[in-house]
Specification:
- By secondary structure, the chain is mainly alpha-helical.
- 72% of the residues lie in helices and 0% in strands.
- The chain has one domain (2-199): Tetracycline Repressor, domain 2, CATH 1.10.357.10.
- It has helices spanning 2-34, 41-48, 52-58, 62-86, 91-105, 113-120, 127-152, 162-180, 186-199.
- Helix 2 packs across helix 3 (52-58).
- The radius of gyration is 20 Å and the shape is elongated.
- This is TetR/AcrR family transcriptional regulator.
């Protein structure tokens, strides 16, 4: 009986996790397309295949849902983009790999969340704005460190302070990938070309990329 109860609890937890994941993905699509102010909770629930009551069972209000989406998208990005790129020992290759992987990530319809919310909450003191800042600040510090490392090794030319360069790197990367999102494989080439310019690198030798942004 105990095993059955444990199995039942596990099944219930799994169902709850699946519901939460579906609602977060639907909300991410809604935030990307419509922003926070115009986000419809009823449309979010329907897009995930649930009722509005099921959504409120998971999230108390729109703000709590948006905060969860910011955390979820940040975790997804770090798993699919930031982590694999950071695994490169060569800091220049890490920075270029990050740009390519980000372009591939931006083919997804949830990828516009951060940029949409950053624009909407710019200059505002709001929990969502603070959550965005908590996601961005460590990235600037981490990749500013890789820029400093590359400069010390002579792989990048001198330039503005590393963290300012990292801010320009991410701003440029976001702008380019929004403009060419989904235009594979050229989105990958544009993304890498743009950040190489910010970093003071010459253009990459033209090479074909596969659908996942890897050179062939």
């Amino acid at each position: 009986m105990a095993a059955e109860r444990t199995g039942g609890r596990r099944t219930q937890a799994d169902r709850r996790a699946r519901t939460r994941s579906a609602l977060l993905e639907s909300a991410a699509r809604g935030l990307s397309a419509h922003g926070y102010a115009n986000l419809s909770l009823e449309r979010v629930a329907g897009g995930a295949g649930y009722t509005r009551g099921a959504l409120y069972h998971q999230f108390a209000n729109k703000e709590e849902l948006a905060l969860a989406v910011v955390e979820w998208v940040g975790e997804t990005w770090r798993a699919e983009v930031g982590g694999p790129a950071a695994a490169h020992e060569d800091p220049v290759e890490a920075l270029c790999a990050l740009a390519r992987a980000h372009a591939v990530y931006c083919r997804r319809d949830i990828a516009g969340v951060m940029m949409t919310l950053q624009t909407e909450f710019s200059g505002r003191d709001h929990p969502v704005a603070r959550a965005l800042e908590r996601n961005v600040r460590p990235l600037i510090a981490e990749w500013g460190g890789r820029i400093a490392q590359a400069r010390e090794a002579g792989a990048l030319p001198p330039g503005p302070p590393p963290e300012e360069t990292a801010s320009a790197y991410f701003g440029t990367l976001q702008g380019v990938t929004i403009a060419v999102a989904g235009h594979a494989p050229h989105d990958v080439r544009f993304a890498e070309g743009a950040v190489r310019g910010v970093l003071g690198l010459p253009p990459a030798h033209p090479a074909p990329f596969d659908a996942d942004g890897h050179s062939t």
